[in-house]
Every structure is written in structure tokens, then in C-alpha cells.
């Protein structure tokens, strides 16, 4: 049985590339659910369980930081790990993300090994 990943990015192209990267990394993934922004992700979380959320920072409607804060303030979702995958990574932004409770950060574009290593770190080893 594999993991269910919620991939949140406003670029459909990036979401597709990330999903291909998951496959290239030979990750044990059962399903990748996609959302175009934080608000869509919240709607998905209301009806679906996911093992991890990978989210961009800069998105319309609800950005990645607001998504993380919303999830961490909700009893049902606060334990779901959220990793940020973004081109943005200033020291100030990283401090803000750390305070919000992210589980990890990757800078776009990511190599398959980087994604695999992040998921191993956050979700644990798999056989």
C-alpha cells in the first residue's frame, strides 16, 4: 500500500512535472491528488485523507503559508505533514514557514532524489 499525496500548485505544468518526478523516484505512491491553490486543498481535505501535502508558496486565492496555518489550526489536519516546494526561499520566508510548522522544504526545480529523501525523512522508511 502506498502513500496519498496532495500536491498544491497553481501551475498545472508544475503539478504534472512533480507527479512524473514522484514516479521517476520510484516512490510507493498510491494516489496523487492535485489542487490549484490552498482553498482547493482545504476542500479536498474535508473529504479525503492524505499522508502528506506538498505545496507551493505563491498561489492565488489561498497561498501556501495560509494553507499551512489553516491546517495546523484544525484538529483533524494538524498532524498531516506539509512540505513546501517553491522557488522562493529567503531567510525571512523560511523563518515564517518554520514557525508555521512545515515538515520540510524543497527548492524548485527538484530532482527525484530530493523528493524521495524528503518523503523518507517525513514519512519514514518503506520496504
Give a verbal description of the structure.
With 127 residues, this protein is an alpha/beta fold. It has a single domain (3-123), classed as Rossmann fold (3-Layer(aba) Sandwich), CATH 3.40.50.2300. Helix content is 41%, strand content 20%. The protein has helices at residues 12-24, 38-45, 64-72, 91-100, 112-123; strands at 3-8, 29-35, 52-55, 82-86, 104-107. A five-stranded parallel sheet has the order 2-1-3-4-5, sandwiched between helices. Helix 1 (12-24) links the parallel strand 1 and strand 2 (29-35). The protein is globular.
CATH topology-level fold name: Rossmann fold
CATH architecture: 3-Layer(aba) Sandwich
Largest sheet: 5 strands, parallel
Q: Determine Rg (CA atoms, Å).
A: 13 Å
Can you give the mean pLDDT? 89
Order of helices and strands: EHEHEHEHEH
Beta strands, count: 5
Strand content: 15-25%
Content-based structural category: alpha/beta
Helix count, DSSP H or I runs of 4 or more residues: 5
Concise synopsis of the structure shown:
The protein is α/β, with parallel strands linked by helices.
Write the topology of this structure:
Elements: E1 3-8, H1 12-24, E2 29-35, H2 38-45, E3 52-55, H3 64-72, E4 82-86, H4 91-100, E5 104-107, H5 112-123
Helix pairs in contact: 2-3
